[in-house]
Every structure is written in C-alpha cells, then in structure tokens.
Amino acid sequence: MATKYCYLFSEGNANMRELLGGKGANLAEMTNIGLPVPQGFTITTEACTQYYEDGGISEEIQKEINEYIVKMEGITGKKFGDKENPLLVSVRSGARASMPGMMDTILNLGLNETVVNTIAEKSNNPRWAWDCYRRFIQMYSDVVMEVGKKYFEELIDKMKEEKGVTQDVELTAEDLKVLAGQFKAEYKAKIGVDFPDDPKEQLMGAIKAVFRSWDNPRANVYRRDNDIPFSWGTAVNVQSMAFGNMGDDCGTGVAFTRDPATGEKKLMGEFLTNAQGEDVVAGVRTPMPIQQMAETFPEAFAQFKEVCQTLENHYHDMQDMEFTVENKKLYMLQTRNGKRTAQAALKIACDLVDEGMKTEQEAVAMIDPRNLDTLLHPQFDAKALKAAEPVGKGLGASPGAACGKIVFTADDAVEWAEKGEKVVLVRLETSPEDITGMKAAQGILTVRGGMTSHAAVVARGMGECCVSGCGDIKMDEANKKFELGGKTFVEGDYISIDGTTGNIYDGIIPTVDAQIAGEFGRIMAWADKYRTLKVRTNADTPADAKKARELGAEGIGLCRTEHMFFEADRIAAFREMICADTVEEREAALAKIEPMQQADFEALYEALEGCPVTIRFLDPPLHEFVPTEEADIKALADAQGKSVEDIKALIAGLHEFNPMMGHRGCRLAVTYPEIAKMQTAAVIKAAINVQKKHADWNVKPEIMIPLVGDVKELKFVKKVVVETADAVIAEAGSDLKYEVGTMIEIPRAALTADEIAANADFFCFGTNDLTQMTYGFSRDDAGKFLGAYYDKKIFENDPFAKLDQVGVGKLMEMAIKLGKPVNPNLHCGICGEHGGDPTSVEFCHKIGLDYVSCSPFRVPIARLAAAQAAIKENK
Ligand code: ADP
Ligand code: MG
Ligand code: MG
C-alpha cells in the first residue's frame, strides 16, 4: 500500500507524535476529546524526509495534499479560493519535540485581491479583511520568499507616522488596504514577479517553506543543543483559521496551567484583544493578564478554564496552550507539555505525584536530566542577564556563571585571588600546570579547545564555570590583552562568562547562589529507588570526592593520580624522578613522593567511607610535568647537580611527535616499574591504615592500569603490582583484599577483551581516549573541523560529548560480551566524559555496565538518567 502522508485531525491522536509531530498529534488529541479546535489536517514527518530525499514535494504527495484540502472543504463548508465563502488556513510547522520559535508559520493563506474584497464587503468588516491580507503578504514574503520582515515593518511604521497613531490597531481598513498594496509592490520589487494569487500555489509554497525551515541555521543549532536528530523531520499542519482580529470581542492568548518559572499551580498567561498570531508574545501591544479575561470575555474565559482542567487531567502534566477568541467563541490552537525551569520541573513532578496524577516512576521520567545542571551552579541574575548583550560566544563547556577581573596566567589568578579579588582566567588554552590557577579563578575562558579540552574537563570536574574555544578572541598573551567584539580587554577589566550558553559579556553581571528546592531530594530519592546502574564520580581530591558524595556518588570510578603530582610540594620531587639517570635515583625521588601519595589516598578513602575507589596509575606523557620557566629549570638543575643545558636537553628528549599515542599509560610502568611499585605501596598502605581505623567499612582498593592494548602489557604491570601489594600486606599482617583492573580505551583492548578479562578484575571504559583512537582524531583538535562536519551533516554531535553508540559503543558491547564469560566476576564501568551525558548513560544501562563515573556535578544527572533508563526498559 502506498504510504499515507496526510491525516485529518480526526484521524490522529497523541501517540502519533513521531509521524504527526507534537503539534499535530495534540491537535488531533484535542479534537478527539471534543475540544473546540479549528479543523484541518497534518502532513507527516515522513513527507518531510521524502521532501529532503526528492529535493521537492513529489507529485504523489501534492496529489494527496489536494485531496485533503477537498476533505477539509467538506468539513468546514468553505472552499479554497472561493469568493463567497473562502477557506482560509494557517500552515504551521510541528516537529516531534517542540522547538518553539525555531520554524515558521503562515496565517490567513488563501487570500487574494478578489477574495479580500468580497469578504470585506460581505462581513461588513473591511478592517479585518485587509488586516488579514496584509499579514498574509508579510508572512508569506518573509517565510516563503525570505524577503525579510524588516521592509514590511518599516512600511507599517511609516504608515503609523503618517497617520499620527502609535498602535497597529489604530490603523483603519483604508490604511491597511494601502499597506497591502505597498507590501505587494515591495514583494515584486524584491522577487521580480507578482505576489501569487492562486491559493493552491500559495499552499504548496508555504508547505515547502515549512519543510525548508527544518534546515534553517536556528533550527540546526537548536537541534544539536537538544539532541534532536535531523532525520526526524517536521510535520506540517494545515488548519482553518480562527480570527482573533475581527474586533473587540475577539482576541488571542497564550497560557500555562502552572507557573513555568516556579511550578506553582496557578493559571498564568496573557491575552490581547483584537489580535492575531504572535501579537501577544511579539510585544506589538501590552497584553492583559489572563485573569482579566474574566471581565471582558466571561463566557470564553469560563470555558477556557474548564479546558485547562480537562487538558491537565488528560495529559497529567502542565500544559502550554495557544487559543483564540472569535466573536466571543473559544478556539484551541495548540497544547503541549510546557517548557519549564529546572526548579519548576521538580515542583510540578512532585505535585503531580501528590495529586495522584503521576506515579513516582512517571515523575522521575518527566524531568530532563540536563536541566539539573542549572540547579547546581551559581547563576546570573536573570533580569540582568536579559538586559545584557554578549560581546562574544564560545562553547558552554562547564555550566555556571562567573564574573571577575581578567587575568592571563594561572599564577596571577592565584596571586589576585589571595588578595581577595574575583578573577576570570583567560588563556589561549590551559595545561595541567594551570590547575591551581583555574581553581583560584571564578571561571575559565579559553580561545582554543573543545568540550573535552583540558580546560573543559578540569572545569567540569571542579564544578567551575568554563567557556572554551572562543575562536573570535584575538589573543595577545604576551602583552596581557585581547580583542573581542571590537573591544580591547586588558588585565583587570571585568568580564562575565556564562558556562551554560557560552556567552561572554563585557563588565559585571551579578550572580545569585544556586538554590536547591526540597523537591530535588524527593525526586533523587525516587531515582535511586528505580535505577540499577550505579553512579560513581571522577575525583582526584578529597574535596571533590566529598562534594560528589553529597551529590550521591557511590564511589570513585576514576582517580587520576597525576593531578596529585602538580601540587607545589611534590612537583619538584617528581621532576627529579623524571630527570634521574638510574633506577636508584628514580627510587630515591619516588620515595619522597610515596608518603604524600599515601596521605592523598588515605584522605580519599576517608572521604568515601568504605565505598569503592578506583585509582588509576600514572597516565600522561612525562613531558607534561617538566618545567617550562627558566627559573624552574634552573632550580631543577641545581637540585640534580646538573647544568641547565643538561636539563634542557633532557626536556627536549621527552618531546614526542604524537604524545597522545606516545610514551604514556601503562607504557610508563613498563619502562619504569618503580613508579607502579611506589603507587601500589601508597595505595595499599593507605587502605590498610584506613581499614584499621574503621572496622565497619570495607576498604578494597581497585588499582587501574591505563592504556592497555595487549594482554602482555597488563600481565607485566599486574605482576609488579601484585608482588608489591602482597609484600606490603604480608608485612602489615593484614588480610586486605584488592583488585587489579584495566581501562579499555584502545580499540585493540576491546577486540581482545577475552584475553584481557582473564587477567583483570574489572574493565573501565575510558571513552575519551577510546573515541579518539576509534575515530583516529584528536579530541583537542577536533574543534577545527567539527563545525564543517555539522554543516555537512556528517556529524550531528560532538562524539566526545555524546557517545558514538554505533562505533565506539559497538566496541564496548563487544568487550563486555567477550569479557564476562571468561571472568564472570568482571565488573564494568565507564569513566569518560560520557558517563555524565544522559543519552550515553542510557546506552551504558542497556549494554549492561555496572556503573558510570562522571564529574561530581554531573552525579545527580547520571543518577536521574540511569533511573530513566531503567524505567523506560521496564515499561
Ligand atoms: P509556533 O510553533 O512558533 O508557536 P504556531 O504554528 O503555533 O507557531 O503559530 C504561530 C501563531 O499563530 C500562534 O500564536 C498560533 O496560535 C497562531 N495560529 C496558528 N494557526 C492558527 C489558526 N488556524 N487560527 C488562528 N491562529 C493561528
Ligand atoms: Mg505555537
Ligand atoms: Mg585515557
């Protein structure tokens, strides 16, 4: 059977949103439950997909559309293009997920000079007729022919000036008629042909334009930000018009059944008399609060309140509605589950459970995990933000709001912060050396780097605001200044950055502390009740670990030990280790570090109170640790009894062409087993001490070997670990148990996971490296071409932010399937950045991971996403 591309509203229902789009499905549903909806039909999302395949609307689909126009004529008793009783329609976009304001709508389609003259006369309301016509020409020109709104707005302004009026409604029928003429002339001047008179031609043009608007730049950006695939397409709704612009007993309004900002249960909305379409929200005139309708439109308002109740009872959720009153009669034009702030989302979900409208599971399922982010970080004062104009935009790499004086080096950040200044650290890019400075700053702004650049990852880990990759900045680090948005910023200037949107503002925008309402706890408790996937955190310090525990982490999935080496009191010893010529010298340097590492680990075990802690052994290439400043090089040379030249030569010798694929990970432990020995001793001694102090805890170290590609590497390092650990345990007379596992972050490890599983207690998928190595491009350089990839629809998302389930995900699944039969006790987790991304978490649940691990501030997001995955699976 041929595909059906059109559905009357009476043929659809709310469950058909994939095919009919949200707007179409809900218009159908409202029709089914007997609400007053102007009738029409929906052209499916499949027709949109087909449009993109065919490069136009096919004959077949056009034919079906024309058939449905005939059906519509039958239902309404009006006729398209008819002089006496013309059918006028709106043509409205409507995707599966609502994308407010992203695509286009055309109203009053079907008008031409002949029709408008007849209805003007017949209705005895020429003002209405000409108002419809001028609006139609305006919208059609803008949406279909892309002439640009502003030309028409200028003509309206000119007309108002000539007539000495300020409001559109004050223009007379005659004025509007003149305007319509001017609009058509404008159209002809811009397009070169006459404005189309044939309603069928108008209709096809409008439908095409709606399909086309699915691919406009606004919509593309919105989709990427909201995980909406291009392949979904948009539906098109053709609906007969209800007229809110016929006079003073008409009007149009928008309303929410609950307050979308706070969640409070009260009708919120606005209404504008004698108006149409977007007039209410466009600020043409100041609308009245919806409650005032009680006086001016008592019957329609009473009916509307009933409709609100009906819709809430029906959808079991807060509704966002559009309606029109035509000659005192109410028409419903749209309903949808309303968008809301994170805070409102939590309150509404809890209230709906208390009202018996939703189960706990449904309440958990209705919260967008990504929204929780905003509850966990300080925010800009909403009013001040609205009034401010950004000077630039980067990537919203780590959410939150930061405002402070600009500094250009990590050292300055520390120094200024110690003086009590709030600073924003602005750098070309950050390196591990900058960590203390990053911590001291309110926020970080970088010129280079993507969502998983050093700055982004570290900032998210610290819960600090970060905007990365603002390529528009013309940076002059040497002279401590940069240019952006036509302005030169120097050290000490105030700047404000928004880590959620990536917006950058000149000057001070005040911030307010994040507020976590009581409902937050209730929702999270329900989430924990229904999820099966555990949530751990990536934390390197006791402070981070504590924060993560507060936010519900059930363990540490990744402690990166290298970060511990950058502290001022140990970097010197570590550098000595790097510069040592013999094993003995290296061991002597490591012996200085061991007690410090042990103390770090003890603090971590204390913070985790017996929950599991996975400690990853040294991972980055050694060159990241060597000094770059002359003074530091000199100090190192002196400490080593070497010349500055010798040290410089040594540093030069560490240079690698491709450090991410160089001498790092377990390769370090293979070449320098004494590093692994030291780290093992520190881990085991720390665990023994903490276990002694807390008999009721179960301290069981998990030692993780990074970057294994061949089981022989793992075997070699594991032997070193086991020998050292067993010796320490025996010496202490302890019965401590420990595990040795590996990261799976090289494709070869996933491919040979059965061999590896025979020698590992656990797998942890390091999906940052695994993505990098599977795709074969660097996470720090991907920013250079991702933009082009988005434009050409090769990628829809950054694979470093959203797990590539097809490729990288297949490797993960394969590794689990190969590994578990060999070692039934094998536990598996993920500790890449994806561990805190909701759709990636869902995938991790599906493939049977035991836990995800993410930065502390993402823990609640992961808990919620894990619960949603479990709930979805059980449905
Ligand atoms: P969006 O998705 O951007 O809200 P809509 O398709 O909902 O766009 O339409 C834009 C405006 O036009 C809304 O105010 C809507 O209520 C109004 N509108 C759409 N169709 C009709 C119609 N058939 N009769 C009257 N007003 C309409
Ligand atoms: Mg709408
Ligand atoms: Mg790695």
From TrEMBL:
<feature type="binding site">
    <location>
        <position position="766"/>
    </location>
    <ligand>
        <name>substrate</name>
    </ligand>
</feature>
<dbReference type="InterPro" id="IPR000121">
    <property type="entry name" value="PEP_util_C"/>
</dbReference>
<dbReference type="InterPro" id="IPR008279">
    <property type="entry name" value="PEP-util_enz_mobile_dom"/>
</dbReference>
<feature type="domain" description="PEP-utilising enzyme mobile">
    <location>
        <begin position="421"/>
        <end position="502"/>
    </location>
</feature>
<feature type="active site" description="Proton donor">
    <location>
        <position position="831"/>
    </location>
</feature>
<feature type="binding site">
    <location>
        <position position="560"/>
    </location>
    <ligand>
        <name>substrate</name>
    </ligand>
</feature>
<dbReference type="InterPro" id="IPR013815">
    <property type="entry name" value="ATP_grasp_subdomain_1"/>
</dbReference>
<feature type="active site" description="Tele-phosphohistidine intermediate">
    <location>
        <position position="454"/>
    </location>
</feature>
<dbReference type="Pfam" id="PF00391">
    <property type="entry name" value="PEP-utilizers"/>
</dbReference>
<feature type="binding site">
    <location>
        <position position="745"/>
    </location>
    <ligand>
        <name>substrate</name>
    </ligand>
</feature>
<keyword id="KW-0418">Kinase</keyword>
<keyword id="KW-0460">Magnesium</keyword>
<dbReference type="InterPro" id="IPR036637">
    <property type="entry name" value="Phosphohistidine_dom_sf"/>
</dbReference>
<feature type="domain" description="Pyruvate phosphate dikinase AMP/ATP-binding">
    <location>
        <begin position="302"/>
        <end position="351"/>
    </location>
</feature>
<dbReference type="GO" id="GO:0050242">
    <property type="term" value="F:pyruvate, phosphate dikinase activity"/>
</dbReference>
<dbReference type="InterPro" id="IPR040442">
    <property type="entry name" value="Pyrv_kinase-like_dom_sf"/>
</dbReference>
<dbReference type="GO" id="GO:0016301">
    <property type="term" value="F:kinase activity"/>
</dbReference>
<feature type="binding site">
    <location>
        <position position="745"/>
    </location>
    <ligand>
        <name>Mg(2+)</name>
    </ligand>
</feature>
<feature type="binding site">
    <location>
        <position position="769"/>
    </location>
    <ligand>
        <name>Mg(2+)</name>
    </ligand>
</feature>
<dbReference type="InterPro" id="IPR015813">
    <property type="entry name" value="Pyrv/PenolPyrv_kinase-like_dom"/>
</dbReference>
<dbReference type="Pfam" id="PF01326">
    <property type="entry name" value="PPDK_N"/>
</dbReference>
<feature type="binding site">
    <location>
        <position position="767"/>
    </location>
    <ligand>
        <name>substrate</name>
    </ligand>
</feature>
<dbReference type="InterPro" id="IPR018274">
    <property type="entry name" value="PEP_util_AS"/>
</dbReference>
<dbReference type="Pfam" id="PF02896">
    <property type="entry name" value="PEP-utilizers_C"/>
</dbReference>
<dbReference type="GO" id="GO:0046872">
    <property type="term" value="F:metal ion binding"/>
</dbReference>
<feature type="domain" description="PEP-utilising enzyme C-terminal">
    <location>
        <begin position="518"/>
        <end position="869"/>
    </location>
</feature>
<dbReference type="GO" id="GO:0005524">
    <property type="term" value="F:ATP binding"/>
</dbReference>
<keyword id="KW-0670">Pyruvate</keyword>
<dbReference type="InterPro" id="IPR002192">
    <property type="entry name" value="PPDK_AMP/ATP-bd"/>
</dbReference>
<comment type="similarity">
    <text>Belongs to the PEP-utilizing enzyme family.</text>
</comment>
<feature type="binding site">
    <location>
        <position position="769"/>
    </location>
    <ligand>
        <name>substrate</name>
    </ligand>
</feature>
<keyword id="KW-0067">ATP-binding</keyword>
<keyword id="KW-0808">Transferase</keyword>
<keyword id="KW-0547">Nucleotide-binding</keyword>
<keyword id="KW-0479">Metal-binding</keyword>
<feature type="binding site">
    <location>
        <position position="616"/>
    </location>
    <ligand>
        <name>substrate</name>
    </ligand>
</feature>
<dbReference type="InterPro" id="IPR010121">
    <property type="entry name" value="Pyruvate_phosphate_dikinase"/>
</dbReference>
<feature type="binding site">
    <location>
        <position position="768"/>
    </location>
    <ligand>
        <name>substrate</name>
    </ligand>
</feature>
<feature type="domain" description="Pyruvate phosphate dikinase AMP/ATP-binding">
    <location>
        <begin position="58"/>
        <end position="287"/>
    </location>
</feature>
<protein>
    <recommendedName>
        <fullName>Pyruvate, phosphate dikinase</fullName>
        <ecNumber>2.7.9.1</ecNumber>
    </recommendedName>
</protein>
